[in-house]
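hey can u run this one w/ iron/sulfur cluster bound, need the structure tokens asap thx
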Amino acid sequence: MERRVYIETFGCQMNEHDTERILRLLEGSHYLETKNAKEADFILINTCSVREKPEHKVYSALGRYKWLKEKRGVIIGVAGCVAQQEGDKLLDRVPYLDMVIGTHAIPMLPQLLKKIEFSGQRVCETGFDPEGNYLKTILPPKPLDKVNLSAPRSEDRGLLKVHPEPRFVTQPLKAGLRVVERVKSYVTIMQGCDHFCSFCIVPYVRGREQSRSSREIIEEVEYLAEMGVKEVCLLGQNVNGYGKGLEEEIGFSELLGRINQIEGIERIRFTTSHPKDFSEKLIQAFSKLPKLCEHIHLPFQSGSDKILKAMHRGYTKESYLEKIDHLKEVCPSIALTADVIVGFPGEEEEDFKETLDLMGKVQYDDLFSFKYSPRKGTRAAQFQDRVEEKVKQERLSTLQEIQKEITLRKNQELEGRVKEVLVEGRSRQSAQDVAGRTRSNKIVNFGGNLELVGQLVPVRIIKAYPHSLRGEIIPTHCRSENAPAYQQAGVGK
Ligand code: SAM
Ligand code: SF4
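ok here u go:
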């Protein structure tokens, strides 16, 4: 019998992607996604505890679903970082909660669900998995029109022996890839982190760094390409650490090189890269690999050497700026974004000025800025010299005002230029428009129909806004027949 699952997701792309994987996994247990919690048989809250706000949201979300438990006996679960961190305590605190499932236990979800369905027993599974099985491929089934039943299965080609989770299924299929994933997909290449920045909870809730084998990653990307996906974004907390602990000798730059060769994939992105390990090889990849998009997210967190040291980041303002300068030399069109924290313990006015100075020097295309929030169990949570909330807020507002101007100015530099846009879907602004992204990851809205979705088209930028660009598509008759859309005179990637 088919059942319905509703998942509410908090946090970053990593969590969004985990939710996708959970949905694929549950499809094998006859649970299909619903966007309406009221009709769900199973409600899962996929949580994040990296900062205070998303953590608090988890408890209010649970409160919202209590009546559904009382009325219809819906099964309620919590997954992700908060589940990993709180474990049993969550079950004690929320009496109507059925399941707590940690970051490494996702493959066990179908079994745990069955256990609850049959016995009504409440379950908590938060062990770490040193084998990294939770990283194994979970691919969505292919829709029937994509299944080539005469083609040898991957096992026969000797590519992969065991698939513990459903993939390359041969029976009639339902969903296939979800709409956004048909154009661009996230691919997890590693999990966890070994860095232990003093403010960060990730190594405690996601465990140590573990990489997926390159063979599995390549297979997944090939599969996505076959399904029509044009862009992949490789995910990991510290992608530069890719390859550590694997039997094969491979680093992140080599992995990028291999993915660059996969036919059908037009664009490659990755996130997140740590400045300390941001290598010369990776910098050179931006000039060597044509599919690697000209955008990097390179969090700096602070511009003050004193604060960077207390954060245990392993680089200085100067060494960070040197890498950025070098990157700009190698790839002059690179777009830069980053994360920054204000109000870390001990941050004085002088330190904050250093942060603003770094921002002024780099001229980021965009910034994700956060007020420091102490995370239980991290080293910085014990630091005494806390910054007052009011000061944190003032610094955050100052920084955001400055960045808003820089972002708008950088967007305005694109006015009048023609950019290659990968069309992702309908624009949020108007039903007559579609939206897509430039290689530099900027959102462009322009008039067009949904047939353009999944295509790379040349678009002239006519107006810049702080968060997006407005454009107009270059008509077909103006494009040369043989050249790809973006290889027109004056077209910048
Ligand atoms: N691995 C990435 C790196 O090192 O750059 C960052 C991953 S972290 C999940 C995402 C961002 O959340 C960080 O870059 C940082 O700016 C922010 N963050 C993490 N812990 C925080 C805390 N305790 N308070 C405020 N912001 C925090
Ligand atoms: Fe957290 Fe630092 Fe690891 Fe990023 S590198 S996930 S900030 S510990």
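Residues 12, 50-51, 199-200, 202, 237-238, 272, 274, 299, 301, 339, 341, 370, 372-373, 375 surround S-adenosylmethionine (ligand 1) (CB under 6 Å). anyway lmk if its weird
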